Amino acid sequence: MKRLRVAATSILMGVSVIALTCPSGANAQYACSGNSEGQIMVGMTPSSPGLGSVPLCVDDPNYASPQASSAPPAPDPSDILANYARMQFELLHKLAAIANDPEFIKMRDGYWSYFHDQDAPRSGLHCIAMFRSAAGIVQLNGPGRGYSGALLILIGPDIPKPANFSTVLATLDQKIVPPQTVHAFNYSMADGKLGALAFTVPSVEAALAGMKENLTFKVTLEGRQVIDAFYRDGIDAQAKMRECLRGHPPA
Predict the structure, then answer these.
(1) Phi and psi of 118, rounded to 5°?
(2) Three-state secondary structure along 78-89?
(3) Tens digits of per-residue pLDDT, 70-106?
(4) Claim to verify: residue 130 and residue 184 sit in the same structural domain
(5) Is residue 231 part of a domain?
(6) Where is the signal peptide (predicted)?
């Protein structure tokens, strides 16, 4: 039993010696079985009762493994730059093609569409001016049967899309006046792909009087921005809406 205790103590001492003689790093020494491929034997661990010496090795800095020698050569930096430049050129070419596409330009700049009561075109009812763009839809609805006011409706993919028609508290920022926090109707459209916010306006004349040549509509709900839309050519749209309300809708 005494010899076993001595042997165990010697093992611990031997491990300590190996640890002290094996610093970490590129030239770290480690226990090995002697010289072999990729190794250089640099010495032996001290022996102690019950524990013999073992060889100590370091990695051979001049050794190249078969895997390393068969690895493909590193790419030439000039080739990398040339490929990168080619990819950038192709990307710019595609972007230029998109930028010149008529449909892309139309959605980027936005455009107006007009609607009216098809059953009674000269009634001056259900006149709608809608501005579509990639930023969202801005829509002005005039009075209809059973409703004498007007609606400002904003439509976009980031607006909440509730399963049921609901009322929310929304902050509307149009830059030309201080932001206003008002109630708005919130509902979904296009099979739940788009959300809509409808703001009531006391009269269509009040809505038309507020139209400008260019106007933005940024809305936040509970501190989160849900749409940042705009329209342009607002004065022309204002004139077309007035004509529709008089019973002369645009063709």
Answers:
(1) -70, -30
(2) HHHHHHHHHHHH
(3) 556 666 666 766 676 777 767 777 777 777 788 888 8
(4) yes
(5) yes
(6) 1-28
